[in-house]
């Protein structure tokens, strides 16, 4: 009830009036049944605009840090992420990654829509980067289609590091569902998982015509941090 109240009464109408989001390919989202919406990731606001523009309820897996803040700010952040259908996950790896997988499978097991960013993190420069294979494992284990989604101009409205969004129009392009039933029972094969993930990334690249680089976005971010640290003036006397 809280989700729908925020979407249609409190948050949704204001966001739609200010940013006038548009969508192409709405018919590609099934009216019922589970599916994974695989999206490029340009901005924090991607997780706001996509659920807002889809008629069905959907969930995103979000960093658990967003749900553990203290004080009024922590409460407000927690309420906002809950209102936009996001679920807390631990991204520290190992058993935490397995728990994240199970959380996503739980959403799909209830016949709902699950949003995933295959790149694993926001693109630092608007380029589409190599996908993580977790999405392939979920798709094969849950036996659900993967629907490619391209977010348009969200990186301009709210670039990385900016707290207050700029006013501008954003768009969403929904591609045709990808069927991976031919790989049923092969979710334990890492070569199959990589092949499925790459097919998803190719579909995203073709749909959005983004520049693609076959390296992880997290690796690029680490390089940028290292480069910035090297350029910073030394504080040693």
UniProtKB/TrEMBL annotation:
The keyword Glycoprotein does not apply. The keyword RNA-binding does not apply. One of its GO terms (molecular function) is 1-acylglycerol-3-phosphate O-acyltransferase activity. Keywords: Acyltransferase, Transferase. Pfam families: Acyltransferase. GO terms for cellular component: plasma membrane. Residues 35-154 form the Phospholipid/glycerol acyltransferase domain. GO terms for biological process: phosphatidic acid biosynthetic process. Signal peptide: none annotated. CDD domains: LPLAT_AGPAT-like (cd07989). This is 1-acyl-sn-glycerol-3-phosphate acyltransferase. It comes from Microbacterium testaceum.
